[in-house]
Amino acid sequence: MNNHSKIAAGDPLTIVIVGGGTAGWLTAAFLQNQLPQTINRHVEITVIEAEDIPTVGVGEATIPSIRQTLAACGIEEHVFLKTCGATFKHGIEFINWRSEPKVGGSDDDADNSYFHPFGDQIMVGGKDATWQWLQLPQEQRAAYAEQFSVQAEIARRGQAPKGFSDAPYDGALAYAYHLDAGKLAQFLKDLSKERGACHKVQKVLEVDRQGDDIASIHLDNGEQIRADIFVDCTGFAARLINSDKQNGFNSLSDILFVDRAVVTRVENKSLSDVIGYTKSTAQSAGWIWDIALQDRRGVGHVYSSRYIDDEAAKAELAAYVKQPVETLETRQLNMRIGYHDQQWRGNCVAIGLSSGFLEPLESTGIYLIEMANWAMLEFVPRYVSGAQPQASYNRILHNHYTNIADFLKMHYCLSKRRDTAFWRDNCDPATIPKSLQDNLSTWRAAVPSVYDFNSTTQCFSATNYKFVLYGMGLPSAENPATVPSPQIGVMMQGLSQRRSKLRDLVVRDTVANAAYFSALQQL
User: Fold this and answer.
1) pTM of this prediction?
2) pLDDT of residue 52
3) Which of 182, 225, 370, 444 fits a 20 to 30 Å CA distance from 421?
């Protein structure tokens, strides 16, 4: 039973965040900078963390929403980039996902790779030319990302998405970041404390509940803490949101199989080693991410323990980075795939791993933290006034998780790989959500549309789906004419001209990654 009533006007709003890391300190910085002006009252934020709990550094890649979130925290972009060793991200290159690699072939087989870029799809006179592209004979089609975006080309040229003097969080192209999650958490901690957040280094020993509400928490120093709102950032332990084990967990392990990761790092020799996109290379029972920070590459093998053991997974990672397995320094991570039924329960909100987790294939870990914060900014004022917004908040977060799960699964179930049980089982219809099955059935004869989705608050749009669908080689149900019609020819000619003009503008308005970060280091 929820015992919440309207919080007295004029009283400060007290928020206690249990757990630090990226989730805890990003939440503190965001709410600290945004919430007081939204509810027109003072906000007191306390962050309680136990220092002996390591930060999970899986989410070192982001998507473009992070720029708006960092700006909302009042963070200057150049300061963030320099402090967190961050680099730009244009998108993701997927290697060996469409079909199994050729024996003795290159790890970067161009015929078995595609690019999922950020940014909008190039239009012709405001119209989508995807259907016309599908009507071309196969030999006349450029790769979808190369035809409908300039981002893959710009990324492979080593160009940043912007010039050094461009406005903060703005540039010629959409972009996100690769970042050091540990440095980001420390940066946000220092910022939040400087702005007045109270920081306690203690362990939570006990949680007092009154139905769905948390009445107080007890710390190991004997202190009892009460608050108007508690935020659970305790990771997979979910110490607050599920302290009584009554909050159901929606497991997605029967859809998304990967549940383990082994990670390492490779030092960069110079800034010229920085590439502005993530590489995702498919393996026998998972995939390897490869991202470049300013001083190192973060490399990790995400895999399913049902199909490969830890030693074999580490051996695949060692082969990828071309190091002897016995000398490779690594760290193992466990992943619980799914999300809690109640994301906001009583006076407690779960953010980060305590909320849930989906594999980092499309860099959605930090995104889900961001979306929880933006939703809180919308719903906390209602809660303060005495309303009960929990159901609406939970529905929105559920939509985020299910949309992302469908999108991730699509990468696997469209693959033609059948070389291992992992890939064969991923194509089993029993493991594919009905919502995705229905959409894939539609998209074999039609182009993805905004009308195919039931939520306006979702991570991946019809544009994202098109880049992955056609990158993975989804066939059209139509048999293209041997000679395209004049109308198709006119549309494709217009598309090529529009792309060429956009490419020239982007090249003119951006600089090389190495030049950008060399200038940054001089600040």
Assistant:
1) 0.95
2) 64
3) 444
